[in-house]
Amino acid sequence: MFLPKNTRRQSIGELEIYISNNEKYCLSQDSFGNRKLYGLIEETHDDFEVEISGKAETGLDICEEHAVNPSAYSFLKAQTPLTAAGSSLRAYRKNLVLEDCPGAYEKALCVMNTLHYTFAYEPEATRVHETAENALALGRGVCQDYAHIMLSLLRTEEIAARYVVGIMIGEGSSHAWVEALCNGYWYGFDPTNNKLVNDEYIRVSCGRDSGDCSVIRGNFYGCVSQRQTETAIVEEKEENL
Q1: How big is the CA angle at 42 (ends 37 and 43), to the nearest 5 degrees?
Q2: How far apart are CA 73 and CA 50, in angstroms?
Q3: Cα 151 from chain centroid?
Q4: Would you list the DSSP string of 61-107?
Q5: Which of 37, 103, 164, 169 has the fewest beta carbons closer than 10 A?
Q6: Quick one: 98 exposed, middle or buried, by C-beta within 10 A (0-12, 13-18, 19+)?
Q7: For residue 43, what pLDDT band results from cuts at 50, 70 and 90?
Q8: What angle do CA 227, 179, 196 make, to 5 degrees?
């Protein structure tokens, strides 16, 4: 399970972790810098519950982090099986006027805006492991598909980009968007809503594509069912005058 962490744009505090039956857990960090909670229950059990709560102060900056060594992220310019460009993506790229964009930031804005208005949001139109190529050919999908398509297009332009999972205020469930490395900083772009990531977003995890940053991941043995919920309560911070 991934947990939100402090970045330039957000501060996480008062984090409380509850696991049923007082099971032990460990905290660590993966290769993408995500904060991870993990554990193992070997004994037979009938139920298992995890509850995470805390407070997130967002909107502290317009970017997530400064990339001191941008070349270290060159692997995020490479396509993955979920973002690989086929005939549909290559044809779509030809219709984008990215040559007139002076830099990576402007290209990301162009891709986000164009994709938002040419791709339709439709729940259950695609599968969990749908590729960007298939989703674009279909012409509709969910936030995961918007993000995969945008990643593919940015990587075609040799722009380092990563898939992000988090919570957007008002969504009531996890949401996906894209971060692009522009002028040495990571900026968030949400093509589903055609918005720059701002104080309405809580970032949880990132990776090459959706396969790297599922909020919850694990293995069960036996007949099981699982339910996952996320809730965010927003309060305006009072400033002392």
Answers
A1: 125
A2: 33
A3: 11
A4: -SSS-B-SSGGGGGGGGS--TTT---HHHHHHHHTS-GGG--SHHHH
A5: 103
A6: middle
A7: confident
A8: 90
